[in-house]
Design a protein that fits this description.
Length: 157
Amino acid sequence: MPVTVSAPQGGQVKAWRVDGAASERRLFLVNKGDQRVSVDVAAPGARYEIDRMTPDDPSDGGRNLDAPGIPIDGRTVNADGSWPGFRSTVGEIHAGHLQITLGAGETAVVTLHGHDEEMGRQVYDLLLEVASGRRSASEELALGGEEIVPWQLGAVL
């Protein structure tokens, strides 16, 4: 899955992908810079979830890269040490792209769902088009006309 990063001068974004379950991919994005960046992800899936780890400086001292706290999805560990759970941002992918803005020092985990279903739909649609008269790639290139013979005339030995 290609990732295109558009960032201001000096932007420092690191990205990598991990394949998960059958139709799940996770993309990890880390903004190591001190400016907001916009990331464009070419996403073949149908749905996404984003979990963000955002630096938090309660003193409003402007510290991002060395902030004393880093909430996940706006939540922090409770005083008793328990975790209240994730609160992911969810949505649908349109036109095969997902725009994500990362704040200074912010990290995002993007989970893409449904890329297998999308590919299956594309193959099915292409099969229907060819069955309805669209020329296949081999027909357009004039290849393989003699190789496929559904029934042979005359005696076959």
